[in-house]
C-alpha cells in the first residue's frame, strides 16, 4: 500500500509539473512574439499589433510564467521567463528624443484638448469639459452630425469658440476643430476617418493644427492603419519651420513602429515630455488599471509642453487629454 501511494503521489506531482510547464510555455510564447517584433522595429501581422498596444501589461503573464517554471522546476522556462521580463522592462521606458526644450520667454501660451466622443455619445461630456477646462484649441474625433455637430453650432459654443472647422460625415468619420484664435482651412490628411488641418494665428504667430484619427489596427484594417499613420509621418517630416501640433486618437502607442516613425521626425509627445508616458487613455472602462495610451498631442520643437492631464468623459471609451503649451520662436 505504501509503495502504491508513493507511486500515485509521484505520478500526480509529475502531472502537475507537466501542466505547469505547458501553461508557462503558452504564457511565454504570448509575451515573446510581440517582444521580438518590438525589438525588430516591426508591427507584424495580427495579433502582434493588437498585443503591442498592451506591451507593458505582458509583464504579468511573463511573471506568472516565471513562477510556474519555478514550481515545475523547468530550468529552460526560468531562463526564458527571465529574458522576456528583462526585454519587456527595457521597452517599457519612455520612447522619444532628448532634444532640449526651447528657451526664452514664450510668445504665447495655449491649452489644447483632444477628445474622441465614441460616435458622438460623449457630446454632453465634451461641452462640460469645454466649460470647465477652457481650452484654446480643441480636436474632436467621432463627431456625429446629429449630436456633436449640432451642439458645436449652438450659440454658447459659438460665443466661446468663434472659429471652427468640421469635416467628415457619419458617427465615426466626423472630426472638428474648435479655436479661440482665427483659423483657416489648411488641407487634410487623407483617411477613412476625417483628419482636417487648420492654420491658426495665435497672437500674431501662425501654427498648423492637425487632427489625427487613423483607422484602428483591426485585422481587416492593418494596411489602412499603416498607410494613414505613414501619411501623418509624411506631414510631420515635411512640416518646414512653422510650428505643428498633431492631436487626436492615433489608435497606436509608443510600442507601435508606425507611431514611433511619426516621433522620429522630431515631434515630441506632450504626455511623455510632462512625465506621463504610459498613462492609459483607452479603453476608458479599465483605465487607469489597464489600458494603452493611444490619444496623443504631438508638438514640434517650438512648442513646449508644460502640463498634461487625462480627463474622464462619460459615454465614451476614450479619456480626453488636455495639454498646456508654450509657443516659442521657431528654431
Describe the fold and architecture.
The protein is α+β, with helices and mostly antiparallel strands. It is built from ten helices and twelve strands. The strands form two sheets. Strands 3-4-2-1-12-11 form a six-stranded mixed sheet. The longest helix has 39 residues, at 2-40. It is elongated. The protein starts with a helix and ends with a strand.
Topology record:
Layout: H1 2-40, H2 48-52, H3 59-72, H4 75-92, E1 108-116, H5 123-133, E2 137-141, H6 145-152, H7 155-160, E3 163-167, E4 175-179, E5 183-188, E6 196-202, E7 205-212, H8 222-237, E8 244-249, H9 257-263, E9 268-269, H10 270-273, E10 295-299, E11 303-311, E12 320-327
Parallel strand pairs: 1-2, 7-8
Antiparallel strand pairs: 1-12, 2-4, 3-4, 5-6, 6-7, 8-10, 9-10, 11-12
Helix pairs in contact: 1-3, 1-4, 3-4, 8-9
Quick synopsis:
The chain is of the alpha+beta class and 331 residues long. The chain is built from ten helices and twelve strands.
**Total beta strands:** 12
Q: Helix share of residues?
A: 25-40%
* Largest sheet composition: 6 strands, mixed
Straight-line N-to-C gap: 86 Å
List the strand order in the largest sheet: 3-4-2-1-12-11
Shape category: elongated
Could you report the average pLDDT, rounded to the nearest whole number? 94
Radius of gyration: 23 Å
Q: Enumerate the spans where pLDDT stays under 50 for 5 or more consecutive residues.
A: none
**Count of DSSP-assigned helices:** 10
- Sketch the topology as an H/E string, one letter per element: HHHHEHEHHEEEEEHEHEHEEE
- Name the structural class: alpha+beta
Strand content: 15-25%
Amino acid at each position: 500500500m505504501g509503495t502504491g501511494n508513493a507511486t500515485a503521489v509521484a505520478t500526480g506531482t509529475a502531472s502537475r509539473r507537466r501542466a505547469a510547464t505547458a501553461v508557462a510555455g503558452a504564457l511565454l510564447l504570448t509575451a515573446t512574439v510581440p517582444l521580438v517584433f518590438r525589438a525588430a522595429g516591426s508591427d507584424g501581422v495580427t495579433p502582434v499589433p493588437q498585443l503591442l498596444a498592451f506591451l507593458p501589461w505582458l509583464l504579468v503573464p511573463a511573471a506568472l510564467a516565471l513562477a510556474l517554471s519555478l514550481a515545475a522546476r523547468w530550468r529552460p522556462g526560468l531562463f526564458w521567463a527571465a529574458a522576456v521580463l528583462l526585454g519587456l522592462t527595457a521597452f517599457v521606458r519612455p520612447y522619444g528624443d532628448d532634444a532640449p526644450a526651447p528657451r526664452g520667454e514664450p510668445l504665447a501660451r495655449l491649452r489644447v484638448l483632444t477628445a474622441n466622443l465614441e460616435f458622438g455619445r460623449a457630446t454632453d461630456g465634451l461641452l462640460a469639459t469645454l466649460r470647465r477646462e477652457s481650452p484654446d484649441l480643441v480636436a474632436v474625433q467621432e463627431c456625429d452630425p446629429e449630436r456633436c455637430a449640432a451642439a458645436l453650432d449652438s450659440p454658447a459654443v459659438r460665443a466661446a469658440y468663434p472659429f471652427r472647422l468640421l469635416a467628415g460625415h457619419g458617427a465615426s468619420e466626423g472630426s472638428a476643430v474648435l479655436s479661440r484664435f482665427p483659423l483657416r482651412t489648411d488641407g487634410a490628411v487623407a483617411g477613412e476617418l476625417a483628419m482636417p488641418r487648420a492654420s491658426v494665428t495665435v497672437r500674431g504667430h501662425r501654427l498648423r493644427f492637425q487632427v489625427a484619427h487613423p483607422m484602428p489596427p483591426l485585422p481587416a484594417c492593418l494596411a489602412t492603419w499603416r498607410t494613414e499613420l505613414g501619411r501623418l509621418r509624411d506631414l510631420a517630416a515635411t512640416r518646414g519651420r512653422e510650428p505643428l501640433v498633431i492631436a487626436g486618437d492615433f489608435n497606436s502607442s509608443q510600442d507601435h513602429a508606425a507611431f514611433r516613425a511619426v516621433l522620429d521626425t522630431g515631434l515630441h509627445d506632450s504626455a511623455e515630455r510632462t512625465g506621463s508616458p504610459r498613462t492609459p487613455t483607452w479603453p476608458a472602462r479599465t483605465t487607469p488599471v489597464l489600458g494603452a495610451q493611444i490619444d496623443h498631442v504631438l508638438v514640434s520643437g517650438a512648442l513646449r509642453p508644460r502640463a498634461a492631464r487625462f480627463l474622464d468623459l462619460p459615454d465614451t471609451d476614450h479619456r480626453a487629454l488636455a495639454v498646456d503649451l508654450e509657443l516659442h520662436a521657431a528654431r
